[in-house]
């Protein structure tokens, strides 16, 4: 009888355990899945909505969109990152927490005298607080999460 009670108890806990494990992202599957290329910056996003609900794109001209694809970032399993700008490369350290979907970059090393889109990109990365994504799409957002930058694999 005691074994049957324990079995019933475990069966009752199983759905809650499954729900908790499904609620968290697999951080490595998202971030450490290869090189990510910048797609665009988005304004007026609904962070609580679907991943593909991107909001209003900041850049719409073909020349700008092509230029953004040159901005890449690769996250390594050891917590380091490397990336490319239009005028150089950058490195840093990254950290993500699956439970709160929080994200941060620290120890960023960039070329001196960043200008234009290079400066805009690094500035945005330095302010990122949240992430959402999967193995195909990655969005990073600052505090407030009303804007984001979106990446995809090239």
Describe the structure.
InterPro entries: DUF4847, HslJ-like_sf. This is DUF4847 domain-containing protein. The chain has one domain (20-152): Lipocalin (Beta Barrel). It is built from 4 helices and 9 strands. Helices cover 29% and strands 37% of the residues. The chain has 154 residues and is of the alpha+beta class. The radius of gyration is 19 Å and the shape is globular. Mean pLDDT is 86; it is low at 4-23. Strands 1, 2, 3, 4, 5, 6, 7, 8 and 9 form a 9-stranded antiparallel sheet that branches.
What keyword list fits this structure?
single chain, 154 residues, alpha+beta, Lipocalin, 4 helices
Element layout with pairings:
Layout: H1 2-23, H2 27-31, E1 35-43, E2 56-57, H3 62-68, E3 72-75, E4 80-85, E5 88-97, E6 102-109, H4 116-126, E7 128-133, E8 137-142, E9 147-152
Antiparallel strand pairs: 1-2, 1-3, 1-9, 3-4, 4-5, 5-6, 7-8, 8-9
Task: State the CATH architecture.
Answer: Beta Barrel
Low-confidence stretches: 4-23
Task: Count the domains.
Answer: 1
Please give the CATH class: Mainly Beta
* CATH fold topology: Lipocalin
SSE order, one letter for each helix or strand: HHEEHEEEEHEEE
Query: What multimeric state do the chains show?
Result: single chain
Distance between the termini: 59 Å
Structural class: alpha+beta
Mean pLDDT: 86
Radius of gyration: 19 Å
The shape, in one word, is: globular
Strand content: 35-45%
- Main sheet? 9 strands, antiparallel
| Number of contiguous helices | 4
